[in-house]
Specification:
This protein is an alpha+beta fold. It has six helices and 19 strands. The strands form seven sheets. It has a seven-stranded mixed sheet with strand order 1-18-19-11-10-6-7, with helices on both faces. The radius of gyration is 19 Å and the shape is globular. Bound molecules: zinc ion.
């Protein structure tokens, strides 16, 4: 494989539940599922390797698939966590991380000077972007606590509250957000802040745990008198800078309208699947939002 193959395009751009249903039953996804089942069926051990091409590394590699991060056994064999595995031996990024870095590589202009904001800073994705695209203005942040002002740096880590980000209007070309919005008490406010900070035509790429079987988003928790109030049994996700982040929202299909009503001109869900680039797991979903 040559690196000129490294243009990764979505297999579908989805705007509603019916289009998602069509994708789910499409030949492309059936083909990917058959490939995945063959791999699982042919492996006796709890780990195996898949030959492919790592776009961030720009070279052929053997992606590692093992039982870590919630792989589970079934009567037919074991099922890996495809999204969190398929780890490249060189850059150590998994399926999800390689996909978003590939899309960043495709987004950034060959001309220097793009401003890109990642809602993460102590992660392999941020490190890769900073080390690879020194000619661009790369900004990352973490949420460090309610006591801090947006934009301040604590031990080299920048703090931002996404409901009140410290960027000027139209300062950013791109925003990258990986599994952040479900932890924000008022996601509409945060979407509006992102739209405000982007230039016209600027793009936000976002992943969230998406509940494709729900039309309406479910509020699991809210802020009451300055403290989180749990309306449903609490769910926490691990986080590089704190013991666990509470989930406030389970997003359903209404999130696309929520994004558009917050100041974006368009929002759709791009589905990616590629045997050659090690993007398995029945279609990886990336929300693509244009200011
Ligand atoms: Zn790699």
């Amino acid at each position: 494989m040559k690196s000129k193959l490294s243009e990764l395009k979505p297999i579908a751009s989805i705007r509603n539940r019916n289009e998602f249903h069509c994708l789910w039953h499409s030949d492309k996804l059936k083909q990917i599922r058959t490939f995945e089942n063959k791999l699982i069926g042919s492996s006796e051990a709890d780990k195996f390797f898949i030959e492919g091409f790592c776009v961030p590394c720009d070279q052929p590699v053997s992606f590692l698939v093992d039982m870590q991060v919630g792989g589970r056994k079934t009567e037919k064999g074991w099922v890996p966590n495809w999204r969190e595995r398929l780890e490249c031996p060189v850059c150590k990024m998994n399926n999800r991380q390689r996909l978003i870095t590939t899309l960043i590589k495709q987004l950034l202009s060959p001309e220097p000077g793009n401003t890109i904001y990642l809602m993460e800073q102590v992660t392999p994705t941020y490190n890769w972007v900073v080390n690879t695209f020194g000619e661009h203005n790369i900004i990352g942040s973490e949420y460090l606590g309610p006591e801090y002002e947006g934009g301040i740096c604590i031990n080299g880590v920048r703090h931002e509250n996404i409901e009140k980000i410290s960027f000027d209007n139209a300062e950013l070309d791109f925003i990258i957000s990986n599994d952040v919005f479900e932890h924000i008490p008022n996601p509409s406010t945060a979407f509006a802040e992102c739209a405000r900070s982007l230039k016209k035509g600027g793009i936000m790429l976002m992943t969230i745990p998406f509940h494709s079987g729900s039309d309406k988003s479910v509020i699991r928790a809210r802020i009451n008198n300055g403290k989180p109030e749990k309306l449903l049994p609490p769910v926490y996700h691990s986080n590089p800078v704190s013991p666990g982040s509470l989930v406030f929202t389970d997003f359903g299909w209404d999130v696309l309208n929520m994004i558009k009503e917050s100041g974006f001109s368009d929002a759709c869900i791009d589905a990616y699947a590629s045997e050659a680039f090690g993007h398995l797991g029945g279609g990886q979903l990336i929300f693509s939002c244009v200011k």
